[in-house]
Design the sequence.
């Protein structure tokens, strides 16, 4: 009876461990860009200027195309908070202010990591973020300085 | 008759802008095709021609660089007394509708063309007739990493306060009705947009935060009847015409936009042209209206606390009528507002909003005495104190519903066109509003 209990406990612990590592894996992501983007690394301040849509072109004059996941997506939340220091509602408000005053465009919202990956690979000038599981040699990763 | 006249004037004033736009779009398309044709020989030699075609995009890319979005909002409003956007004090009404269509086009890394059509049905001065809300081109003169400097030309939203630039889009407002002490809906056409040239600059630093400055020289839109009545009263029947005016805003945001501070100012000049039957009794005077706005906001994950203050200077000159020429006073407005996000679906709002038409006569008693207690010019028409509570439900990212309740003391911001007989207005009144909004 006692060994049975320990067994259950072990299984439970292992499952818990899986869940925890899984959650951790989900929040791990990288900044990714189309190969046409002529940079290997960018500063956080530069990244902020890009995602707040104030910057329109890369240093090689290519138009910047920004892709994001939906406002309530956990990865979008982690990215906004950790990389931009902003809550998703603040980003949405600043994009709305640009769009409806005509002074800037909004990023394109994609529904999933798969769609993000496709857009980043096929859109010149594109920038976005991806869970590490979706990143392979074909994807251009931007390091944060 | 006035509204018909107005519309004609608006259409006429739009026409040159539209022509400029069409010409611009055509030049760009022709130019881009020319450039992409030039690029073709290069394609064989190098596998990527992105850097050469990036200056002027190819036709397919042109479509990718076009964003179109729209919004539609319908409100139900009911008041205990007084009318807001239609006859609302007899069971309520559906008189407040906002429809907009917006296009943003970026044909080149330095150039953006923007236009928005707006139909607004709200009371007697806003019949829902579509008008060109803004249409301008924006050229980036300088852009390096986090520093930007550029110029905008065309019909632009006047940049003042936190909300004026996007005041007709329900999703960007904290409530169904913006704080009326600062964002008057009755003189909205004047406050909203103007034909102008604007310079802007932005800079950001990881340590200090972001600075944004906008400065414009403009010709304000003052020829709608509600603005004329608000400035001159309903007894004068001549018209206002715009004179050169200035508008500017400086915005500072700490890192993470935790604090946002803005100072904005308008220096607006308009000239009065007396009607034929008024010649001799009143001169072609002018009005100087120069408000200053101070705005502050504090943001956390759940709370957004906002306050704005406005000091509005009015000066009337050269009318040859003592009652008008003696008018030189300051209006004062402010509000405190708290928004609380329970989660990304539900938000609550509480706000206290105060307007004094003349800060040296806050209860309107001097005004009433000056007019011999004329019931058509009651003291309570010179102030308004509005306590608002509201609830916002983001049903989906595209659909939003709102409820709000106002407890109001004073009629300072009531539209005179909707309430032509001021002696019939009530000092203490309530307003209930519900709104459904959609965006795409």
Sequence:
């Amino acid at each position: 009876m006692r060994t049975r209990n320990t067994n259950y406990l072990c299984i439970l612990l292992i499952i818990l461990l899986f869940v925890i590592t899984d959650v951790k894996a989900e929040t791990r992501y990288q900044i990714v860009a189309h190969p046409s983007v002529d940079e290997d690394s960018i500063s956080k301040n530069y990244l902020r200027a890009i995602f707040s849509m104030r910057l329109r072109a890369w240093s090689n004059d290519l138009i910047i195309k920004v892709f994001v996941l939906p406002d309530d997506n956990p990865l979008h939340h982690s990215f906004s908070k950790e990389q931009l220091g902003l809550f998703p509602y603040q980003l949405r408000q600043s994009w709305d202010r640009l769009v409806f005053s005509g002074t800037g465009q909004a990023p394109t919202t994609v529904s999933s990591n798969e769609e993000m990956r496709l857009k980043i690979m096929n859109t010149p000038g594109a920038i976005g973020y991806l869970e590490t599981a979706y990143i392979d040699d074909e994807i251009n990763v931007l390091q944060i300085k | 008759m006035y509204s018909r006249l107005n519309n004609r004037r608006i259409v006429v004033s739009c026409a040159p802008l539209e022509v400029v736009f069409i010409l611009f779009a055509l030049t760009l398309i022709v130019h881009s095709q020319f450039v992409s044709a030039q690029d073709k020989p290069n394609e064989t030699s190098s596998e990527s021609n992105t850097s050469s075609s990036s200056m002027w995009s190819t036709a397919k890319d042109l479509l990718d660089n076009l964003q179109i979005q729209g919004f539609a909002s319908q409100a139900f409003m009911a008041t205990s007394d007084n009318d807001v956007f239609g006859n609302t004090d007899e069971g309520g009404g559906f008189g407040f509708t906002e429809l907009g269509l917006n296009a943003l086009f970026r044909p080149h890394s330095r150039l953006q063309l923007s236009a928005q059509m707006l139909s607004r049905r709200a009371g007697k001065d806003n019949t829902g007739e579509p008008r060109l809300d803004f249409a301008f081109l924006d050229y980036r003169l300088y852009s390096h990493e986090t520093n930007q400097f550029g110029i905008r030309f065309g019909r632009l939203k006047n940049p003042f306060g936190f909300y004026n630039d996007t005041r007709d889009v329900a999703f960007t407002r904290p409530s169904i009705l913006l704080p009326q002490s600062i964002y008057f809906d009755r003189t909205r056409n004047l406050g909203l947009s103007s034909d102008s040239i604007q310079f802007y600059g932005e800079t950001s630093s990881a340590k200090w935060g972001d600075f944004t400055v906008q400065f414009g020289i403009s010709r304000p839109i003052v020829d709608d009847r509600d603005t004329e009545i608000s400035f001159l009263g309903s007894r004068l029947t001549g018209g206002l015409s715009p004179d050169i005016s200035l508008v500017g805003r400086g915005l500072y945001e700490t890192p993470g936009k935790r604090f946002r501070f803005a100072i904005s100012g308008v220096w607006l000049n308009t000239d009065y042209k007396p009607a034929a039957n008024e010649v001799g009794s009143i001169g072609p005077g002018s009005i100087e209206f120069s408000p200053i706005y101070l705005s502050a906001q504090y943001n956390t994950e759940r709370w957004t606390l906002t306050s704005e203050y406005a000091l509005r200077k009015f000066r009337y000159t050269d009318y040859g009528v003592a009652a008008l020429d003696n008018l030189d006073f300051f209006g004062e407005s402010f509000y405190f507002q708290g928004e609380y996000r329970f989660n990304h679906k539900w938000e609550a709002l509480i706000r206290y909003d105060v307007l004094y038409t003349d800060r040296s006569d806050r209860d309107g008693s001097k005004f009433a005495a000056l007019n011999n207690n004329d019931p058509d010019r009651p003291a309570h028409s010179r102030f308004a104190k509005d306590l608002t509570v509201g609830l916002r439900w983001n049903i989906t990212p595209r659909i939003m519903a709102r409820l709000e309740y106002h407890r109001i003391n004073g009629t300072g911001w009531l539209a005179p066109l909707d309430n032509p007989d001021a002696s019939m207005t009530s000092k203490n009144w309530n307003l209930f509003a519900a709104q459904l909004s959609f965006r795409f």
Summary: The CA atoms of residues 366 and 372 of chain B lie 10 Å apart. Residues 75-439 of chain B form a domain with the Porin fold (CATH 2.40.160.10). Chain B touches chain A through 54 residues (CB under 8 Å).
